[in-house]
Write a structure and sequence with these properties.
Elements: H1 31-42, H2 45-110, H3 118-141, H4 146-171, H5 176-189, H6 198-249, H7 255-315, H8 321-343, H9 351-369, H10 373-381, H11 383-411, H12 414-444
Length: 447
């Protein structure tokens, strides 16, 4: 009878039988290995490939539901942002118009000394009040503008204080009044290291708001590309599944999957058509009413600034040449912007009235340059004011019409975008269900 020799260290001798595990069973496979094995088994053979096709088809439809619905939401949000930013831009530019108008009124009233018309002073105070209220509304509406608008409001407060001092001294006949008026003019137009100027600050804010409008229009256009790309990718995936099923099952069409693909295709076609036509409409608003609103606002700001400089040429006798130069530059800007408004579709933005005012201004300059300062003042506060008021009325009416058209045009299709977003989401979910049912029918044939 042989004996098994156990070697030192417990090593099993050569030829000995393997030692069984506890209970005589092999060690269990790790959990990850078991999971991999089950997954391989689930996707083996034709049934496994059918299961993979179910996953591809359903996921493709769900992707379309998510991306397609989001495309309409993104378009709606972008147009809302464009409308919001355009409204803020108009609001800020209106503040600049009110400030420039107030300065033009008080400058020309200054020419009449103690006899400044009470009605003109009342209009000045009304314009300043509107500007202050507009600054508060604009700062609340767009937090990104709040800091700059706060600086403009601070400068406006100092401006009104300087104007009050100028008027008080002017009524008493003190020459120092013109010094305060010059200080007020600088607070409006010329920034320093320690103090912002109202009009340049408002212009910078308006530029930032205009950039937001442009970005929003770009985002709206990108929504069309998003829907189109999502639809093509999903349709390509569903077509690939259809072709594979046709070859594998010897059947040309899988009815549920075909209906699901058709739903995606219809949503894609309708959606792209709506987004493309909607983008075309948004572009028309941008190129017509929005462009006209911008041009008219800038024309009015420049014209009121020119009107103030017309008065300053007479306030600072003998040193008014610089103000006449500024008048001509601002008038050129106003004319260019009125012409731009005309090109953008405004029937009558007030070019004839602007030219009539300039003709009256030439008469003012002719008298002043000829030594008749008193006659020049009468013309500046009489016929020139009347001619300018005609431009003011005409351009203000056109601006109000165009600004309203911007808001109406950008809001016009919002309800349709919301509706199509939900329709696309539901169609994608229905298509996902149809894809699952259709392929599951083929899978059932193998059970």
């Amino acid at each position: 009878m042989s004996q098994t020799v156990v070697r030192p260290g417990g090593a099993r001798p050569t030829g000995a039988a393997p030692v069984a595990s506890r209970g005589g069973l092999a060690p269990p496979a790790p959990p990850v290995a078991r999971l991999r094995g089950r997954l391989r088994g689930a996707f083996d053979g034709t049934p496994g490939r059918l299961r993979a096709a179910v996953i591809v088809g359903v996921l493709a439809c769900l992707v379309f539901a998510a991306l397609g619905g989001n495309a309409f939401r993104a378009r709606g949000d972008a147009l809302d942002q464009a409308n919001k930013s355009a409204t803020q831009l108009v609001r800020v530019q209106q503040v600049a118009i009110d400030v420039a108008r107030a300065d033009a009124l008080v400058t020309n009233a200054f020419l009449q000394g103690a006899g400044e018309p009470a009605g003109v002073v009342s209009q000045y105070q009304e314009a300043i009040g509107a500007a202050s209220e507009g600054l508060a509304q604009a700062a609340q509406a767009e937090p990104g503008d709040a800091t700059a608008l706060g600086a403009a409001n601070s400068a406006l407060t100092r401006y009104t204080a300087a104007v009050a001092s100028a008027r008080a001294n002017n009524r008493l006949g003190f020459q120092v009044g013109s010094g305060y008026l010059r200080q007020a003019s600088n607070l409006l137009r010329t920034p320093t290291a320690g103090q912002a100027a109202v009009l340049p600050t408002l212009d910078a804010v308006a530029t930032a708001d205009a950039a937001r409008v442009g970005d929003a229009f770009d985002d709206a256009r990108n929504a069309t590309y998003q829907l189109f790309a999502a639809g093509l990718v999903v349709l390509a995936g569903l077509l690939a599944v259809q072709l594979w099923l046709a070859r594998r099952t010897r059947r040309v069409l899988n009815i549920p999957l075909t209906w699901g693909s058709a739903a995606v295709l219809v949503c894609l076609i309708v959606g792209v058509v709506v987004l493309v036509t909607g983008q075309s409409a948004a572009n028309r608003v941008r190129d017509t009413h929005y462009a006209a609103t911008q041009a008219l606002s800038q024309a009015r700001i420049a014209a009121f600034d020119a009107r103030a400089n017309e008065g300053l040429t007479l306030v600072y006798q003998g040193s008014g040449a610089q103000y006449e130069k500024t008048y001509q530059a601002r008038l050129a800007t106003a004319r260019a912007q009125v012409d731009a408004a005309k090109a953008a579709g405004v029937d009558d933005p007030g070019r004839a009235e602007l030219d009539a005012w300039d003709a009256a201004h030439k008469q003012v300059r002719s008298h002043d340059d000829g030594g008749d300062w008193t006659g020049a003042v009468k013309l500046a506060t009489g016929p020139s004011q009347t001619a300018f008021d005609a431009f003011d009325t005409k351009s203000a009416s056109a601006l109000g019409t165009e600004a309203k058209a911007v808001s109406t045009g950008l809001e016009d299709r919002h309800w349709l975008l919301v509706l199509l977003g939900w329709v696309t989401l539901i169609a994608g979910l229905v298509a996902a269900g149809a894809a699952g049912v259709g392929i599951a029918q083929r899978l059932g044939e193998y059970r």
